[in-house]
Amino acid sequence: MKKVLKAMLRFVPMLAVMVIIYWFSAMEGDESTDTSGLFLRAIAKIAESLSKHELSNDALGAMHLIIRKCAHFSEYAVLGISAMYAFNQIIGSRLLLIIWSEILSFLYACTDEWHQYHVPGRFGTFSDVLIDSAGAITGILLAFFIFHNKISKRN
């Protein structure tokens, strides 16, 4: 029983990341833009002070897009890492551990974009699913290579 509880607790970080992703996706368009805009203003202020020039609206728009896509990539990298952690004790094969962690992340990205499609002022795009999946596989492979000795070796 103690072993089952311990295995179940390994899913808590992954579920927490999924809740956070859902929360960000539930933000309406203006609120989401304002949230990423906080990062944009901070980065723009640094860039302008270093270059001693004001950034153009086109540059600010490009930076805003990059910030938003990096957020997608990053949150799914964390999801991939937490999926590896959750599944490590129940999936014996290292290859299957990587595959199932990516499948879960991809499917969650699909449902996340479907969810965003239904939020006012938001859009769901397959290109974001691809960015999310790339972030997830990056996190998964990072976790694998850093912790490969601690990852289950059962076949």
Rounded Rg: 18 Å
Strand content: under 5%
> Could you give the count of β-strands?
0
Fraction in helix: over 70%
Unreliable stretches covering 5 or more consecutive residues: none
Task: Please trace the helix and strand order, writing H or E for each element.
Answer: HHHHHH
| Average pLDDT reading | 92
Helix run count:
6
Largest sheet: none
The first-to-last residue Cα distance is 24 Å
Overall shape: elongated
Structure characteristics:
6 helices; single chain; 155 residues; mainly alpha; elongated
Written overview of the protein:
There is one protein chain. With 155 residues, the chain is mostly helical. The chain is built from 6 helices and no strands. Helix 2 packs parallel to helix 5, helix 3 packs across helix 4 and helix 4 packs across helix 5. The model has no long low-confidence stretch (mean pLDDT 92).
Short structural summary:
This protein has 155 residues and is an all-alpha fold. Helix content is 79%, strand content 0%.
Topology:
Layout: H1 2-9, H2 12-26, H3 29-51, H4 57-87, H5 94-117, H6 126-147
Helix pairs in contact: 2-4, 2-5, 3-4, 4-5, 4-6, 5-6
